[in-house]
Design brief:
The protein contains 17 helices and 26 strands. With about 725 residues, it is of the alpha+beta class.
Length: about 725
């Protein structure tokens, strides 16, 4: 059932026609409107052909039609030629079909030309044979008449008897015998007539056997001159060209003869009814002898020397075209020219002959020597045609199979790309062959699998990045946001992670009695694992700094049996007092038991007492912090013990350092001093010089200068490690 287009589709099509987007469409629309207007104007004005309005209307119409054709070709190319199968079909048509059609056209044209030329050749050859027979009979009469003349026995009656005996084939033959200035004529039936006055024509002055035009009629005529005893004997045999004679040349079908036009017959020819329109008929062919022949109609149109002789009374017709032997036996017509001699002037004139025939009639004439066996050639040709047809069908079948295999693979690839475009990466093409298209299908399947894997990895990466972003936000909350400076100490800290999250740690923990705990650490490794351990260290340090008595209990037990049995020991410490060394031992105890063996941390813990302006610290394997004194000296707070979390039962010592107003405490991670470029490491000396140059600036500004200098030192390279910096300045 045919589905009609919906109203919306029709509206869209009309809208596209009235509002084209392409330049060619706009030009076609413009010329279409102009054509309509000019056609209406022409109709209203009743303009005749040849007027200026008609010419311009036709010109605009032609341009509009050309634009429509171009639009149609573009539509065909964009719609029908979009599919690969259609492109292959068009390619096969141009590569295979069109050359075959052209070859067949050439073969048919050549066969038509050959058949027509062969038909006219057979007809003219048969007439030439008749002429040769007439010439031979005339020569024989001349020889016999010469013998009779030499013996003195030649009389008109004897000549008539001799001519009658040899003239059975030419019943209309007239024989003229001339000797000297007299002679006689032997007419058909044996009657004789003497000739007393002879005016020889130009054509009769030499031996002749040809078509002759005399008195507007065509004749077969033979002339023979024989010298005998100083006397010249001339014998002329003449047969008027009649349909009976022409019938001998009608073996191949119908034959039409159009005799030449003699100059003295010009007025008669002009008086004949003419079907000419004053010019050459369509499809006509003009020979170099000024003969125009048109065989396209039911009756041939012949024009000789500019005069129409199609219906001249001297024209001759004979024979008929037989019925077709089969549907492939068409009737055709062909023409040729023949020469005739003007009997009066001896000049050559040109006539025309038109032959109508069929291939079956030509075949019969061509193979008439084989008799009943002539059909063997037809059978052989039919067998060859069937064999070649089978080969063509096999080739067509193979071509269709190959085309379908290619187009099917392309269609499956297109369908697969649609699945991929919709986000379905699980679709796979079924590979059935082992050719290049199969390799392409396999590559597409591999690409789809790789894309699916890549997207899965991308989703996992996005999930991890999302988790890292959350971890970064959480870690950012772990660093001190609002720093409460002591009256005697100003502090500032900054951490710039090399990745999303950091393994470095710093904290400022306010304690009772105008004291402040400073903590700086560097966790082994990077990424999530280091960040998780950093959060653990942050929790331990905060908890044990704010509740020092709870922190000291496991440290005092030294990880002995009392701890494993659950016993506890209570210390009698001053309210809120916290010792960095004991806190470090507690932290080592906890990390050693709660982290994998390869996890550890460097740590610096310092407790600043604002009342005594003293910094009590313990350094567990961290880079020694620096104190830039107000008098220019630099003190390094050396290591008190090994890293935390790596060994069990480690005790950490403590040191005290008085700080005077203007002294600056600097703690940093290896991400500050160890970055390298082509000039080497950043180094502590450069760090000290920068602090000295900006020591009067606020600590936040000093931190900004130091971290900016480190970033400039790294340049475009990736930041190798976390950059952590803690500053404190005594007031």
């Amino acid at each position: 059932m045919i589905e009609l287009p919906s109203a919306s589709a029709v509206n869209v099509a009309i809208r596209r026609m009235l509002r084209p987007s392409s330049r060619l469409g706009k030009i076609a629309l413009w010329f279409g409107g102009l054509t309509l207007v000019m056609q209406l104007w022409k109709w209203a004005a009743h303009a005749q052909s040849g007027t200026m309005l008609s010419v311009w209307t036709a010109l605009v119409t032609y341009v509009f039609v050309a634009c429509l054709l171009l639009r149609g070709l573009r539509w065909l190319r964009q719609n029908l030629m979009w599919r690969l199968r259609n492109r292959l079909i068009v390619t096969y048509v141009f590569i295979g079909v069109i050359p075959i059609v052209l070859i067949l056209a050439i073969v048919l044209l050549a066969a038509y030309l050959f058949a027509g030329q062969f038909a006219t050749y057979v007809a003219l050859a048969d007439l030439q044979i008749e002429l040769q027979h007439l010439d031979a009979a005339n020569n024989a009469l001349a020889v016999q008449f010469r013998s009779l003349i030499q013996s003195g026995k030649l009389t008109p009656q004897l000549a008539a008897e001799i001519a009658g005996a040899s003239g059975e084939a030419f019943r209309e033959r007239t024989v003229t015998v001339l000797e000297g200035g007299t002679g006689f004529v032997i007419e058909p039936g044996g009657k004789t007539k003497e000739i007393h006055r002879i005016i020889p024509s130009e054509a009769s002055k030499k031996d002749l056997a040809a078509f002759v035009m005399e008195s507007g009629r065509l004749h077969l005529r033979a002339v023979k001159h024989i010298d005998s005893g100083g006397r010249r004997l001339t014998v002329i045999s003449n047969v008027p060209m009649t349909p009976d004679i022409l019938q001998h040349a009608a073996r191949v079908g119908s034959v039409e003869m159009y005799p030449p036009v003699q100059p003295e017959e010009e007025m008669k020819t002009r008086a004949l009814p003419s079907q000419s329109n004053g010019g050459q008929a369509p499809g006509a062919t003009t020979s170099p002898e000024s003969v125009t022949i048109d065989i396209g109609g039911a009756k041939s149109q012949v024009n000789i020397s500019g005069r129409d002789v199609s219906n001249a009374p001297q024209n001759l017709e004979a024979g008929t075209v037989s019925a077709p032997a089969n549907r492939f036996d068409p009737e055709f017509r062909w023409w040729s020219l023949f020469n005739a001699t003007d009997w009066t002037t001896g000049k050559e004139l040109t006539g025309a002959i038109v032959v109508g025939s069929r291939p079956s009639m030509l075949y019969t004439v061509l193979f008439n020597t084989l008799g009943p066996k002539a059909g063997i050639f037809v059978n052989v040709l039919v067998g060859i045609a069937v064999f070649l047809g089978i080969i063509e069908l096999i080739a067509l079948f193979i071509g269709v199979r190959l085309t379908r295999s290619m187009t099917k693979s392309v269609a499956e690839l297109y369908a697969a790309t649609e699945h991929v475009n919709r986000g379905d990466f699980s679709h796979r093409i079924q590979v059935r062959t082992r050719d290049q298209m199969a390799a392409l299908e396999t590559s597409f399947n591999s690409m789809s699998a790789s894309l699916a894997k890549l997207i899965a990895e991308q989703k996992e990466k996005q999930r991890l990045e999302s988790e890292l972003a959350i971890a970064h936000e959480v870690q950012t909350l772990l660093f001190p946001r609002q720093i409460s400076d002591l009256s005697a100490l100003e502090v500032h800290g900054v951490c710039r992670p090399a990745r999303t999250v950091s393994g470095d740690y710093y904290d400022f923990i306010p304690l009772r009695n105008d004291r402040l705990m400073l903590a700086v650490g560097d966790i082994s490794g990077k990424g999530i694992s280091a960040a998780l351990l950093m959060a653990t260290v942050h929790a331990f340090v905060r908890a044990y700094s704010l509740e020092p008595q709870r922190a000291l209990e496991p440290a005092l037990l030294g990880a002995g049996d009392d701890v494993r049995s659950g016993q506890c020991l209570t210390l009698d410490l001053p309210q809120g007092e916290c010792a960095p060394g004991s806190l470090m031992s507690t932290l080592n105890y906890q990390l050693y038991r709660s982290t994998p063996p390869e996890k550890y941390a460097t740590m610096f813990l310092g407790c600043y007492d604002g009342a005594s302006r003293t910094l009590t610290y313990s350094n567990a394997g961290h880079l020694p912090p620096l104190v830039l004194c107000h008098d220019g000296r630099v003190q390094r707070l050396e290591v008190s013990g090994t890293v935390v979390g790596l060994f069990d039962g480690v005790n950490y010592g403590e040191s005290r350092l008085p700080m005077h107003p203007g002294d600056i405490f600097v703690a940093f991670s290896d991400g500050v001093t160890e970055p390298e470029n082509e000039f080497g490491e950043f180094g502590e000396d450069r760090l000290i010089d920068l602090i000295r140059a900006h020591r009067e600036q606020p600590l936040a500004r000093i931190s900004e200068v130091l971290t900016g200098s480190v970033a400039d030192w790294i340049g475009g390279n990736e930041q190798p490690d976390d950059v952590t910096l803690v500053l404190a300045r005594a007031r």
